[in-house]
Amino acid sequence: MKTVKCPSCGASFDENLPRCPYCGRAHYAGAEKEYREKLNVIKEDLEDLSDTPQEELTKEIRHTGKLVRNVVIATVCILLLAGGIGLWARGCEREDHASEYRWKQEHYAVLDSLYEAEKYREMSDLVGEYLLADDPVYDWKHYELACCILFEDPSYQEAVRLSDEDRAILTRYYETMSEEERAVLNNRYGTEGSK
Ligand SMILES: [Zn+2]
After folding, report:
1. From the CA of 6, how far away is ligand 1's center (Å)?
2. Residue ranges per domain, the chain?
3. Which chain residues have CB less than 5 Å from ligand 1, an ion?
4. Which residues, including other chains, have CB under 8 Å from residue 146's CB and lie 6 or more apart?
5. Is this structure's pTM higher than 0.70?
6. DSSP secondary structure code for residue 7 in this structure
């Protein structure tokens, strides 16, 4: 057994030891040797574990490698596709919002001016046209009033929330409506008998 002299405490100890057993100072040569020995044991264990011939093992590794690679490629493709669809959908949504906003800006101004001019019949007819065309008229602030005039349905009028101002307008509207106008409305929207 070869010994080394500890540079710290001066004691002699086995050169294969990773540390001086007296003062604990690290002995690198010994530590490295111990590490190599452990590594060799692991290597031997691994070799013992695998009885598979080298060629077959290589084939298997290659096969597994291909499989892993395909799975990774497929996953990346799916993620890209999902991301793409998400972006596209968001783009469409944004475009929808933008065009809806533009529509409202333009058409709500027209409705506002009819409301201010007290042309409630024209205003409501226009709302009816927009409704039929599936245009986003439902956010307009006097939409409910227009619908009340449009549908002439008392149960509808009770169900919706009108501002006090709009309710007063509706009452006045009915008071000033001639029988003829009433008949025209009823014919147009088929609400006869609902009153
Ligand atoms: Zn020592």
Report:
1. 5
2. 3-50, 103-189
3. 6, 8-9, 11, 20, 22-23, 25
4. 111, 120, 123, 124, 126, 127, 128, 140
5. no
6. T
Distance CA 19, CA 55 (A): 43
Cα of 40 vs centre of ligand 1, distance in Å, is 28
pLDDT tens per residue across span 39-92: 899 888 888 776 666 777 788 888 888 888 889 999 999 999 999 999 999 888
pLDDT in tens, 127-185: 999 999 999 998 999 999 999 888 877 777 778 888 999 999 988 888 887 788 777 76
pLDDT of the residue at 194: 44
C-beta separation of 115 from 164 below 8 A: no
**23 CA distance to ligand 1 centroid (A)?**
4
For residue 184, report the distance from its CA to the centre of ligand 1, in Å.
113
Q: Would you say 147 and 130 are in contact if contact means Cβ atoms under 8 Å apart?
A: no
